[in-house]
Design a protein that fits this description.
Blueprint: H1 12-20, H2 23-34, E1 39-40, H3 41-47, H4 53-65, E2 69-74, E3 80-85, H5 87-90, H6 93-116
Antiparallel strand pairs: 1-3, 2-3
Helix pairs in contact: 2-6
Length: 118
Amino acid sequence: MEKQTTRTYNIPAEATLEVIGGKWKLLILCHLNCGPGPMRTSELKKAIPEITQKMLVQQLRELEEDGIITRTVYNQVPPKVVYEISELGLSLKSILDQLDEWGEQYIHQRQCKSSCSG
């Protein structure tokens, strides 16, 4: 079940947004990027409590199909499945780190603004 690669984009950013766009994929990737290593579905669900189980699984599948994350299944009882950023996904590391840094600055700026104007 491979995605068609015949799609044309007006600008390269469209391709990026198609792969990592949306609220959940970016959050999943940030947790996998900053986490201690591979994460189980339940760990991701705990880290992102607002996401439904169904949506989490769907987003993980799409990221896996696009080659951004890898899914490893361990042959044990009960089965153990972990997700981690793939080699291709690692090429997004600097972008994810920059988004994180920008977010920290934004939060700090907003906190200063609200506490200074009060």
